[in-house]
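Checklist before submission:
- one chain only
- standard amino acids only
- sequence pasted in full

Submission:
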Amino acid sequence: MIAMLTQKTRALETEIKRRKSVEDTLQSYLELLSAHAEESLRHQQESCRTLLSILPVGVYSATLTHDCDGIFVNKRFCELSGMDEEHLRTEGWFNAVHIDDRDAVRHLWDSSHRNFGGKQEYRYVLPDGTVRWVTGETVSFASLRGKPRTYVHTIVDISELKEVEKQRETASQKAEELLRHRVEQVERHRREQDQFIDTLCHELRNPLSSILGNIELLRIGLGQRESILASDNLDLDDLERLREQSRYDHESISAIEKCLAHQKVITDDVLNLSKLEVGKVALRMVEFNPKTTIIDAAKMFEAEANQKGVTLRFNLPMSDVIVKADPDRVSQVLINLLANALKFTPRGSITLEMNIMERKGPRILVKVSVKDDGIGLTKQEKDKLFHRFMQPTSTSYDEPCGSGLGLVISKSLVELMGGTISVESSKGLGSDFTFTFVAEELPHQGPTRSIAPLIIPKQYHARRIRQILVVEDNLINQRFLVRLLEVARFTCSTARNGMEALACMERVNFDLLLMDVHMPVMDGIACAREIRAREAMNGLAPVPIIGLSGNARDEHRHEALRSGMSYYLTKPCKKEELYGVIDKFDSQVG
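Returned file contents:
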């Protein structure tokens, strides 16, 4: 019995030793396995840290403990936030966030605790004051119980993207502004065009209404005269009524003349303005004396000034200056300024001044001013003065109005000549209009060429041109021209188109032709070419052909002259102008 117990005891001790040996072996194996696991984990951690340190993304990792051992910051995070690693470990990065973005970032932090993640764009303010935009994203790792344990916050630099977005937004705003500005310009141009057309129609209809009204008065007066003359016995009262009616008729004729003159001013100004706007006005550079040009322009208004009691004064240099520029355009601007000055100066004087502002080699800047003692201008009137159809208030309703385009045209012409135009004025104290133009100063070579005098029509017995063919399709214009020529004792024949004119010339040797340019069947251009071709074929001397047209553009004039016409008159033409041209060709007849 004892032996069995002893044997069992020894067996148990052997088993215990064996098991203890196995446990020791297992413990050694577990320790070795743990060492390998820790080494592997450290290696993985080092690999992860190395990888995170070279990423272009900033990484900030923190475990929610009370020490700094659980914080990892990579190099890129330090660069983007502008703080070193030590500062980030001890102080964190929240204080470097832009003050305007801290609430949003704090909300992101709170969301990372509750929802285990979030994303937000915000700004860092670097130590040097530079603002850097980043996209921050937080990812939380929770324990099994759902409590946040560790979070990783990554940031990506989006400063360049924000700058591109800003530039794109700025460009978009500028494009929208430019488009809006262009739309406004188009709309303003449309309104101005509509206003231009409306005002032009108004300006044209006003004199037309007056012309029609005065024609009706003349028709009434004609009926009254016919009624009086129908009586077999005329007494003194009848004669007095005829004289009174004659005075009324003269008033109506004078009114019609003024209306027609006003219409001509409007049409001429509209034509000049359209030519200036499309750049078809070219300067004619010739030698002239600007003093002579100023004096000649003033002489045109001398009679009207004397009639109103307005004195024309001159303040010009003592010595003559010969320049090379465009005297016609200088005169055109000056005439417009003088006309305005005389219109708005009921009494007092108008002073014309000229001086040389500066010299740069042969080029000089000439200054011309027209100063009057007239009604002057308010500030509002001055601001609108160089706009289309803008005119200051006239002295009375009886004053003739211009087209409202004269100063606009003058401004364009002055700028074309390299100068400027301005006005100084106060209401009730007169106005001082000044313009400058660039010219080339030339050495003085004696007196300049004077303006040719008007041609006085020759007496009938001294004329060589007597037989005239009037070619005009408009019967009213045709009758007017015939009556005008018959008053001057010319013999007239008529034709209504170029074909009829050619037929008439086969029967009669005319001394001169007055030919409308635009006619049906055969116009004046084609007829003139045919006449010149027949003359060349038969060896005949060319008959003078005076073209008549309502088109005043230079290209129409040149086309007419190229077709073979000898001269070109723009409708309406005055009798003195027509007689002068006829006498010009009469003096050339051998």
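Reviewer check: Residues 163-277 form one domain.
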